[in-house]
């Protein structure tokens, strides 16, 4: 009997077992299946899905502009439109500027109309009633003011006197003296003429000389007029130089306010 090698012997035993033989022949297409790796089933732990939250919508609100900021923004838009039309002169840019300009003009016209209507219905805010620009109204208003001013100055004449400083060689003094004389006669003022050179004028031929008062008031320019209140020994400068009637009235009213203590300017004690 021929001796069989060990590997051949094992193979014969394997094929002699009916189950193994059948399995081999049934899966002969798979070849040498003992080299095949066995699939291992892994247990996979089921993980519950995490719910995905829907994103919260973020609302972006435009900033609320104040009326003045809106008006400023409107002006900036109009300026930019004009600048764009100048730098890029296209039909579209011209139309854009014209549209904005028209909107601004219409808005201004609406305001002007409403403003006029509001003034007409609220006369307390109508400045033209206090300072009218109509010719007849101006005349009537001036008459009213003149009467009030004249009454105030006439009342001052009962408590005060005028000091008229001049020089006999001053041409302005010669022109101003007639106005002082007429003014004092009209309102009832007593005039005390004081000459710096001890010489008179035709209207005031016998002046007084009071150099001490001249130095106290620092009279360096003539003609000059001061308002004197004997009851309080106070003086207020009315003005220096030539003045017409209307200007003299205004200066007298202001000097009267000084003597009454209604201004920031101090009076002079004599």
In what range is the share of β-strand residues?
A: 5-15%
| CATH top-level class of the domain at 136-269 | Alpha Beta
- Secondary-structure element string: HHHHHHEHEHEEHE
Strand order of the largest sheet: 2-1-3-4-5
What's the CATH topology name of the domain at 136-269? Glutaredoxin
Please, how many helices?
Answer: 9
- Helical content stands at 40-55%
Classify the secondary structure makeup into a structural class. Answer: alpha+beta
CATH H-tier superfamily of the domain at 136-269: Glutaredoxin
Biggest pleated sheet: 5 strands, mixed
Describe this structure in words.
With 270 residues, the protein is α+β, with helices and mostly antiparallel strands. Among the domains are: 68-118; 136-269, Glutaredoxin, CATH 3.40.30.10. The chain contains nine helices and five strands. Helix 7 links the parallel strand 1 (161-166) and strand 2. The termini are far apart. The model has no long low-confidence stretch (mean pLDDT 84).
Short key terms for the protein model shown above:
five-stranded mixed β-sheet; elongated; 9 helices; 270 residues; Glutaredoxin; 51% helix; alpha+beta
Please specify the SSE layout and strand pairing.
Elements: H1 6-16, H2 18-26, H3 67-87, H4 91-121, H5 127-130, H6 135-157, E1 161-166, H7 171-187, E2 191-195, H8 211-217, E3 224-229, E4 234-240, H9 245-259, E5 268-269
Parallel strand pairs: 1-2
Antiparallel strand pairs: 1-3, 3-4, 4-5
């Amino acid at each position: 009997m021929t001796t069989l090698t060990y590997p051949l012997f094992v193979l014969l035993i394997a094929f002699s077992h009916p189950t193994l033989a059948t399995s081999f022949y049934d899966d002969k297409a798979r070849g040498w299946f003992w080299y095949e790796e066995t699939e291992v089933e892994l247990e996979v732990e089921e993980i519950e899905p995490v719910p995905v939250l829907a994103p919260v919508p973020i609302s972006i609100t435009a900033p609320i502009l104040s009326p003045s900021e809106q008006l400023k923004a409107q002006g900036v838009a109009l300026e930019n439109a004009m600048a764009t039309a100048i730098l890029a002169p296209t039909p579209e840019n011209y139309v854009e500027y014209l549209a904005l300009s028209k909107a601004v003009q219409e808005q201004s016209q609406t305001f002007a109309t409403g403003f006029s209507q509001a003034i007409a219905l609220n006369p307390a805010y109508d400045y033209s009633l206090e300072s009218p620009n109509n010719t007849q109204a101006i005349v009537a208003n001036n008459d009213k003011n003149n009467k009030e001013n004249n009454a105030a100055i006439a009342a001052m004449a009962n408590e005060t006197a005028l000091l008229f400083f001049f020089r006999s060689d001053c041409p302005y003094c010669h022109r101003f003296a007639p106005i002082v004389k007429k003014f004092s006669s009209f309102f009832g003022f007593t005039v005390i003429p004081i000459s710096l050179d001890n010489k008179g004028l035709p209207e005031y031929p016998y002046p007084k000389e009071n150099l001490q008062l001249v130095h106290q008031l620092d009279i360096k320019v003539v003609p000059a007029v001061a308002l004197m209140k004997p009851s309080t020994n106070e003086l207020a400068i009315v003005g220096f130089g030539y003045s017409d009637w209307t200007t003299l009235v205004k200066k007298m009213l202001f000097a009267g306010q000084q003597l009454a203590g209604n201004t920031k300017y101090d009076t002079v004690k004599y």
